[in-house]
């Protein structure tokens, strides 16, 4: 059957034009800052975004301070209106992407995730990875330059695979990581290692975490996940073996679930799923609704 991509998996073209062909012009970027319709999104050092009182939308402002190329990041243009981001101490309501991601409209989600990802990168990588010298923010905030060794650095994105695994009875494998609450379960995930394809990473991670052998894989979709700078690559997979073996260290629980069992335990409050903003939730929802390639 055709794969139904879960809603919200970032499949449509973004309305946020990142203006790559112009952002290297520092004077052009500076001029946008002073345009009367420019918008500024603010985020705390802890990753909390300014939101409206109801928590359903981002709270943006008109810039009212002098432009600082080392602090103010040009996210891009939306219908010729510039959107910038800055890390700041905030008054008023704040929420993280985890808390509000599922409530945001697609454009606001793009802006919120881009803000979170780029500011996390600047906070975590101010020095040159080659020589250790402090670098200068360039390219409207989407690069850093080392004047000591003349290297240019760009934002890092760490790919991770996340996999909904079904067996031949159409049961879903759900597991619990050691760091999670006792009632939380999700599908398995892990980072792509050097020299791996996404598919290789899927097979390796699942073997390491559950000792299962996988057969057919089906790519479903991806989602930016800036905690601090990841992108999640979602798959469905068919299990060839079904006997689970976990290490008890990283993964402390794993089992096969029918839809009836999962629904009953969710209703009873003995289990909980990841938040609705996550690709994990959407993969599980696709399976619950029988909208997956192995149904």
Brief summary of the model shown:
This protein is α+β, with helices and mostly antiparallel strands. It starts with 25 loop residues before the first helix and ends in a 7-residue tail after the last helix.
SSE order and pairing:
Blueprint: H1 26-33, E1 39-43, E2 49-50, E3 60-61, E4 73-78, E5 81-87, E6 94-95, H2 97-100, H3 106-124, E7 136-138, E8 143-145, E9 152-153, E10 158-166, E11 172-177, E12 188-191, H4 198-210, E13 214-225, E14 230-239, E15 251-257, H5 259-268, H6 279-288
Parallel strand pairs: 1-5, 10-14
Antiparallel strand pairs: 1-3, 2-6, 4-5, 7-8, 8-9, 10-12, 11-15, 13-14
Question: What are the key terms here?
Answer:
single chain; 295 residues; alpha+beta; 4-stranded mixed β-sheet; 6 helices; 22% helix; globular; disordered N terminus
- Bulk shape: globular
Residues in helices, as a percent range: 10-25%
Strand content: 25-35%
> How confident overall, as mean pLDDT?
94
Biggest beta sheet summary: 4 strands, mixed
Q: What is the rounded distance between the termini?
A: 8 Å
| Distinct helical segment count | 6
- Give the tally of β-strands: 15
**Order of H and E elements:** HEEEEEEHHEEEEEEHEEEHH
Strand numbers in spatial order across the main sheet:
3-1-5-4
